[in-house]
Predict the structure of Tetracyclin repressor-like C-terminal domain-containing protein.
Amino acid sequence: MATASTAWDRVRGSIEAVVEFVATHPQHALAGLEGWNQARSLPGRTKLARASAEGPSGVEQTLIEGQRSGEFGEFDPHVLAVMFQQAVDAAVLESAVRPDTDLTAFAAELVALFDRAIRRRP
């Protein structure tokens, strides 16, 4: 994603890369999500709070940069970054619950959703 020329390309590419990983490594993706959920449990929250205090996540920083450049519209970058994380986590859960899910179509819907949510419109 670092080589993407625009903030939108980084957002879109991140969605597509995560969902592709889920499609090709569903067991690993689910294990990773379960580990992440454990980190968000009560004992792990202190560590997450420290990491959050260190600055915005990579996605949030991309959203901020996209707003500064005028590529993205007005929205709260932190809220959209949280929603981004939840949306890609949903791909993992959907794959686990419904293994026959068309993850390519799932990724396309996420891309379209975030396109409508963040891109500046004329």
In short: The chain has six helices and no strands. The chain has a mean pLDDT of 85. Residues 12 and 97 are 24 Å apart (CA to CA).
